[in-house]
Amino acid sequence: MKKISLILLNLFALLIYFNYSVAQKESILKDGKLVLLALAPVDPRSLMQGDYMTLNYELSTDIINQQLPKRGYAVLRVDDQQVGHLVRFQAEREPLQQGEQLIAYSNPNDWQLHIGAESFFFQEGHADRYSEAKYGGLRIDDKGNSLLIGLFDEHKKQIN
């Protein structure tokens, strides 16, 4: 009887955590600020890998000579076309100047920066639509959590 109670308690805790996670993502989609991040060039042979593409962002291209913490924040300044430009990296949420936006990152190996949106999945047979993408569109909340909502072309229009 104790084992069943323990299993049910763990299942209940897992369901609570799952629902909380979904609610948090829905909140970012609804209230997060749209920021377009420029995509860095990717080796064409690895650009399309089945029904998804690997994304590499310009903000992560020059981190090799920097001593970044394993987790931190990229501080962006967003222009009037909603394009985010890297200002600096910092370990904490503060300091933050007016007009700056945070995006949380992890730095697993000193040459890669992950913002949680490194893959874009699409319907089979639609690879050609996304091959000319110039921006990744992310919704970002005030804590730096981000969610990839799509890819955008050179005119900053979402590719459907």
UniProtKB/TrEMBL annotation:
InterPro entries: GDYXXLXY. This is GDYXXLXY domain-containing protein.
